[in-house]
Amino acid sequence: MDFDYSDEQRQLKDGVERFVRERYQFDQWKKIAASESGMSEENWRQMAELGWLAVSLPEAHGGLGGGAVETMIIMEGFGRGLVLEPYLSTVILGATLLARGAPEALQAELLPKIGEGRLKLALAIAEHQGRYNFADVALSARAEGSGYVLAGQKCVVLDAPQADKIIVSARTGGGAREAQGISLFLVDRAARGLHLRAYRTLDRRRAADLAFDNVRVDAASLIGGRDRGHGLLSEAIDHGIAAVAAEAVGAMQCLHDATNDYLKTRKQFGVPIGSFQVLQHRMVDMHIALEQARSLALMVNMKLDGPAGERARAAAAAKVQIGQSARFVGQQAVQLHGGMGMTDELTVGHYKKRLMMIDVLFGNAEHHRRRFAEMEGAEAA
Amino acid sequence: MDLRFSEAEIAFRDEVRNFINDNLPADIRAKVRRQVHLERPEIDAWQKILFRRGWGAPGWPVEHGGTGWSVVQRHIFEEETAALDCPPQSPFGLSMVGPVIYTFGSEAQKGHYLPRIVSAEDWWCQGYSEPGSGSDLASLRTRAVVDGEDYIVNGHKIWTTQAQFADWMFCLVRTDFEVKQQEGISFLLIDMKSPGIEVRPIITIDEGHSVNEVFLDNVRVPRRNLIGREGKGWTYAKFLLGNERTGIAQVGGSKRRLRRLKEIARAEHVDGRPLIDEPSFRERLAQVEIELMALEYTNLRFLADAASGRPLGPETSVLKIRGSEIGQRISELAVEALGHYALPYELPREGMNEPPVGPEHGEGLVGTYLYGRAYTIYGGSNEIQRNIIAKMVLGL
Fold first, then answer.
1. CATH code for B249-393?
2. What is the mean pLDDT of residues A326-332?
3. Interchain CB distance below 8 Å, B279 and A373
């Protein structure tokens, strides 16, 4: 175990910081967020050139074979910059599923494209009735001829409008909410019968509700084997949690620093408001919340490649801590900025909204605390 | 950065595990598991076992009798000793005064005191607080005046943990009343057998005897027992606090208590099913366990910083704050888990033949809860810790 960055990791960190400094000043962010696609193709190309889109891909398919540490560095930087490009959907979730579940030929076709910035993905797993339980899959896949026919709905699919392909969970067997019987399919966004209701989200990103109206896919688009998608999905989601944990740490750090600066400069009653002990202690509690989040973000990334049970437990714990810290830091950042914290002109609210998104993504703090508690029950048995 | 254990680290873990299983006396292990208050002979026995193996001072450099372990090795050792119910090592010598002596002490002091700490020959206590100097420690008034080759010390220390067992006390005294408060303080090593020292017990709300008042009435202390330079005591005291912090997170102890709490929650019942299956209780249990995981990794991060040559500073106050809050939370849940049997409170007494009232798993828990209210008070109250972070880390 070694906690110091290697030279390469340090260079990556510097590179991400430079990217954010040069391409994600607040005004630039606003422009990209307000654009038609809500992302910048130029930034995406730049990320490809810098090797970031290939960093965690397997070396056999043009990847750099990097691990959790590289992803952590990139995502924390993206959290600071509120980076809008669909890195999570494509490189973390999509590529993880493909690299671990897709047939070799499909991997050889698609993974290099991801690395080169020529393929964007989205992951459609949530259904309204299922809330955060991604085993609650009602969307059906019926075998027909040499392929399948998909019918049903998915809700709030992030980055779907700009994705080229969408990975969707569907039920090929088993009963409602059963883990067994879930299969994953790779579907063209433009497939016939797939209807998108696109919209923007709280944090000005893009998402869509999807309706699958008898969408035909061939058997080769099955990822991870029929009926056996759930385990693979759990693994990808834990990778997603580890990535957004790092992103949240970056965003919280910005809120922390902005608030701390404000306490030193804002004067009332003739003194900086940071001289008041009640505000000092509140600021310290924000600091502690951030440090605890940082620790579990590190832990979940450490455990990603370990045994599945430990990985899941770490992911649940991290998601609880991240969610709770994010709420506290976000709310207190607004509170301590007073009226200014309420304005759209400050970055404070935008970080807060990104953190609200992250709390809900993959299930919020309450959901994961229940999950974690149930794992306890399993341990007791 | 590489977040996996190396093969050598895994081998080390197995070595520690095997050593503990082969060498920790069963009766001591059982007491630790039941959270029974340990006496000095038991803590000494384990310390001597570790000492003979060369592991008496896990955190010290080799040249002073330590192990010279890496941060990761120390982490592994802490994990394993806590998981396998080893008694905690006494902190006053190993974590507190020891590092002060090897960092600021003379060669003679190092040669004399350090080996005796590692081998459990000497027990230490900490003479810091005074009746008028709690959070405002720098206002302390115990005075030491030079008289030939000695200091003559007069004053009154309070809240002195284990003074009734201690052979030595490291003591903050005022040697100069003319300068700024912090600059007039010196760091003295005082033999507890010196004439003029009187230790009086203070009984705490758990009705136990852990802390004391120490009265110093014209106590002669040789000048060679001064650490470093006169007037620099405050600097050494601050160094000690920073050094002590990673231990003060109490991760190992909290893990052990949490494990016991789960056993109790499995044994106690509510509406015909184990308390641990009651959703509200189980989620609160999960909450504190997650917080403890976060603390553990925060501790690890700080240790790693220290190992990379970035000295630990006031940011480690986070460990004290979270460690004490989590410790209190666990014992609060334990009391809750006991239900009615949180109420009987019979102190062990001589000639008592009957077994204690209530389930055996409840032994000592309410006392631990009561004494544990001190976690957020001692070692600099949590409010003081927040002041420290605000000022020293956040620059407010």
1. 1.20.140.10
2. 98
3. yes
C-alpha distance from B273 to closest chain A C-alpha (Å)? 13
Hey, which CATH number is domain B124-231, 3.90.110.10, 2.40.110.10, 2.60.120.10, 3.50.50.60?
A: 2.40.110.10
- Of the candidates A264, A299, A369, the beta carbon closest to that of B396 is on A264
User: Domains in chain A, please, with CATH?
Assistant: 7-119 (1.10.540.10), 122-228 (2.40.110.10), 230-380 (1.20.140.10)
Which residue in chain B is spatially nearest to A67 when comparing CA positions? B2
Q: What is the mean pLDDT of residues B25-48?
A: 88
- Amino acid A314: pLDDT: 96
Size of interface A-B (CB pairs under 8 A): 131
Domain boundaries, chain B: 7-89, 124-231, 249-393
Q: What is the ipTM for the molecules in this complex?
A: 0.93
Same fold, B124-231 and B249-393: no
Please give, rounded to a whole number of angstroms, the shortest distance from the CA of A281 to a CA of chain B: 6
Per residue in B333-360, pLDDT tens? 999 999 999 999 987 766 777 777 889 8
**Cβ contacts (< 8 Å) between B282 and chain A: which residues?**
373, 376-377
Reduced 3-state DSSP string for chain A = CECCCCHHHHHHHHHHHHHHHHHCCHHHHHHHHHCCCCCCHHHHHHHHHCCCCCCCCCHHHCCCCCCHHHHHHHHHHHHHHCCCCCHHHHHHHHHHHHHHHCCHHHHHHHHHHHHHCCCCEEEECCCHHHCCCCCCCCCEEEEECCEEEEEEEEEEEECCCCCCEEEEEEECCCCCCCCCCEEEEEEECCCCCEEEEEEECCCCCEEEEEEEEEEEEEHHHEECCCCEHHHHHHHHHHHHHHHHHHHHHHHHHHHHHHHHHHHHHCEECCEEHHHCHHHHHHHHHHHHHHHHHHHHHHHHHHHCCCCHHHHHHHHHHHHHHHHHHHHHHHHHHHHHCHHHHHCCCCHHHHHHHHHHHHHHCCCCHHHHHHHHHHHHHHHHC
Which residues of B participate in catalysis according to the annotation? 244
Average pLDDT on B78-91 reads 88
Q: Which of residues 256-295 of A touch B (CB under 8 A)?
A: 260, 263-264, 274-275, 277, 279-281, 283-285, 287-288, 291-295
User: What residues in B contact A296, CB-CB < 8 Å?
Assistant: 290, 293-294, 297
Q: How many Å lie between the alpha carbon of B194 and the closest alpha carbon of chain A?
A: 43
pLDDT at A95 over 80: yes
Collect all residues of chain B within an 8 Å Cβ-Cβ radius of residue A6.
1
Q: For the segment A241-288, what is each residue's pLDDT rounded down to a tens digit?
A: 999 999 999 999 999 999 999 999 999 999 999 999 999 999 999 999
